[in-house]
Known about the structure:
The chain is of the alpha/beta class. The protein has helices spanning 16-25, 33-43, 45-55, 67-74, 78-101, 134-145, 149-158, 162-167, 181-193; strands spanning 4-9, 30-32, 60-61, 64-65, 107-111, 126-131, 171-174. Helices cover 54% and strands 14% of the residues.
Amino acid sequence: xxxxxxxxxxxxxxxxxxxxHVLQALGIPVFDCDAESKRLTVVxxxxxxxxxxxLGAKVYQGNALNKPYxxxxxxxxxxxxxxxxxxxxxxxxxxxxxxxxxxxxxxVAIESAILFEAGYDDVVDYVVMISxxxxxxxxxxxxxxxxxxxxxxxxxxxxxxxxxxxxxxQFDVVNDGVVPVIPQVLEIINTLSQK
Length: 195
């Protein structure tokens, strides 16, 4: 039996990880794109080779990624983001599909802020958009990342617009700190279980 694949996405500070934790509490395995991409960027030979070819040996410091060096390159232009994504995400997508084939649950999920941008929407059955008001997202992100408001606003500008994500998603979970999240997630799972 192939599991039903859920894509979990939303802008920075929307609370994707909250929904991921709810799914995990329900026994649904969640593939964390951010964590896995960081891991594969260090250990996967193809990714290492491609990044070194693009950026030079300084992109790695021994067995670790030189994050400031990579970040400087990434955030200097949208083309650079696309270059890096084209190296990492095809490998990560293959890794996700392999991971799915090893699961024995009715549902699996993949959590990614750039689900649409990286093309993961074509390997999931349904997309769940997590949303929160802009000010809530900014406050959460500042608290979590310890960065300035302007840095968060710049990251938000670089992400796909929430309305576009919502238009391309089948479900929407509001995570504004007021509306309870768990009943919304349960409703999605119950709806899909009946299909």
